[in-house]
Amino acid sequence: MEPSPLVRPRSFVIRGRKTEAQQRAIDEFWPLYGVEFDGSPLDLDALFGRTAPRVVEIGFGNGENLLALAARHPEKDFLGVEVHGAGVGRVLAAAHEQGLSNIRVVRHDAVEVFERGLGAASVDEVLIFFPDPWPKARHHRRRLVQPDVVRLIVAALKPAGVLRLATDWEPYAEHMIDVLDAEPALVNVAGPGGFIPRPDDRPVTKFERRGERLGHAIFDLEYRPRV
């Protein structure tokens, strides 16, 4: 029997336009921070010019979290994966302005990056913060957190690695719990069905502030590989 094809959620829709400044940042700083992904395995040591703990943020949006963590943790390398040009341009400009050398950006579908670009046990942390919740039932299949995608993330995590997630959409939080608790290779740090307290080291972003203004609770999750 042939293996089932990988479920590929189209978890994003290209929205908005880049400003002229964001496009200039891409034109000028992409050679410094950008990673051209052609489906081949990524050599992270070569990309960053060193060996260090590696953090991958999927869908970094406008880059607030990615930039704050990279500035706070120069001992770690941060690979941001995002499809929206506006966010990419903003991160490139800010990384250059702040003199950050530990950020690289891939503008590509994160599912393919994990499937083809990241080797087994190559990543220390994976961050998925405030992904699009796709609230309408007919769009639930577009949600990023799906069993096949989770298995790709697990394969890339080191044995002592960690998967961190956050959302302000309670139905999506419940969906995340259902999918992640059902993955036998992961352990919920808070226990089955549980959420962790908001980590002090997770920067507050505009997505979280917007959710709070709307009266949404914030749900944080943390999973580690089962050893």
Automatic annotation (TrEMBL):
Entries under PROSITE patterns matching the protein: SAM_MT_TRMB
Record-stated family: Belongs to the class I-like SAM-binding methyltransferase superfamily. TrmB family.
Catalyzed chemical reaction(s): guanosine(46) in tRNA + S-adenosyl-L-methionine = N(7)-methylguanosine(46) in tRNA + S-adenosyl-L-homocysteine
Top-level taxon: Bacteria
Function, in words: Catalyzes the formation of N(7)-methylguanine at position 46 (m7G46) in tRNA.
Residue positions binding substrate: K136, D168, T205, K206, F207, E208
Record-listed S-adenosyl-L-methionine binding positions: E57, E82, D109, D132
Keywords from the named record: Methyltransferase, S-adenosyl-L-methionine, Transferase, tRNA processing
SUPFAM superfamilies listed in its UniProt record: S-adenosyl-L-methionine-dependent methyltransferases
A Pfam family: Methyltransf_4
Entry protein name: tRNA (guanine-N(7)-)-methyltransferase
Pathway(s) per entry: tRNA modification; N(7)-methylguanine-tRNA biosynthesis
EC number: 2.1.1.33
PANTHER family: 3-DEOXY-D-MANNO-OCTULOSONIC-ACID TRANSFERASE/TRNA GUANINE-N 7 - -METHYLTRANSFERASE, PENTACOTRIPEPTIDE-REPEAT REGION OF PRORP DOMAIN-CONTAINING PROTEIN
InterPro entries found in the cross-reference section: SAM-dependent_MTases_sf, tRNA_(Gua-N-7)_MeTrfase_Trmb, tRNA_methyltr_TrmB_bact
Gene name for this UniProt entry: trmB
GO cellular component, one term: tRNA methyltransferase complex
NCBIfam families (alphabetical): tRNA (guanosine(46)-N7)-methyltransferase TrmB
UniProt entry tagged with the keyword Oxidoreductase: no
